[in-house]
Amino acid sequence: MKSMTMKERFLATLRFDELDRPWRFETLGYWEETIERWHNEGLPRYVFNATVAVPYFGIDFWVPIWIGAHEDPGFFPHFIPKVLSREENFEIVRDFAGKTFKQFRDGSSSIPQHVDSPVKTMRDFKRMRWRLNPDFPGRCDNPVWDSAVLASKVLKAPLGIHFSGLFGFHRHLIGVESLMYKYFDDPELIHAMGRRWADLTKGVVRRISRKGEVNVLIFWEDMSFKSGPLISPNTFRQFLTPYYKEVIDDARECGVECFTVDTDGDCTLLIPLFVEVGVNCMYPFEVQAGMDIRKVRADWGTQLMIMGGLNKRALENTKEEIEQEVMLKVPEMLRQGGYVPGIDHAVHPDVPFENFKYFVKMLRDSKWPGVCG
Length: 373
Fold this sequence. Notes:
Blueprint: H1 6-14, H2 32-39, H3 50-57, E1 63-66, E2 82-86, E3 90-94, E4 100-104, E5 113-116, H4 122-128, H5 143-155, E6 159-164, H6 166-174, H7 176-185, H8 187-209, E7 216-220, E8 224-225, E9 228-229, H9 233-239, H10 241-253, E10 258-263, H11 271-277, E11 281-284, H12 293-300, E12 305-307, H13 319-336, E13 339-340, H14 353-365
Parallel strand pairs: 1-6, 6-7, 7-10, 10-11, 11-12, 12-13
Antiparallel strand pairs: 2-3, 3-4, 4-5, 8-9
């Protein structure tokens, strides 16, 4: 079989078609402390972050355009970040998304402690709604995005747009705890935010689609703990389903094929809800939260492209344990198609450099049955 481009390989995986080889996306990234550790174990110093690690490790990729993500609801322009107060080890910061939180002053990796959110009332939301206008001058007409479109064409790689998903959007602006009450106490506000999110997302996709072929939309939706989702299926269908369907249906008209959800925790109850609205790819399927990609494949067949699902903790230990985790899942998943082998999140600092290299080599050197033509 002739060699595929990255774009051809990604879309063939999505369609459960024959491949020249599996798509190479063994991890979502690396902790900063992981890179620092690996510098002492043989990783060249010029590989100083996850972006540089992509070509170094030969990872396949989509060229990203970032509208929103796990820290950003999609504001443009952003708020001006500001340190509100300082203590010996901590500082209180208002970030570029208008959230206030407490964080370590030394920059160490940790989850910042939430202090306050920018939206409490409809009046608050209306005051910042202009920052969510897809047609605001400079949002879509900027050289960074034009370069991304050009790079996807030159490299023959998929072009992907990253958004905060709708639950993530609510969560960014309201805060998790307050959001749980707002679904019941202020549904008008939640729907107004959903309407704005849908208009922003559709507008951006249409604008960028005029510049080049958009292949993937990626929605950040961390909405589950180890025991399951934060909201019920009924709440999802009432406040998320209509807007997701509108966005995905509109994007399909623009030629987008892949609709990906990045969600941690036990997402078992969320999968049918996302499939209903048109999502056809999910990751990373956290093993520690009880996710088993073999069961997900058995339940959903060719309706869902699966990325990840290998226990990142196995990489801490012996090569035998790495082999066991890989062989338990990867051969059968690849035989069935629609699967991208990888761990269930970023590589953490307890993973030795040699173990990660062994993991990658094992996945790439093996001749998986039923994969290649």
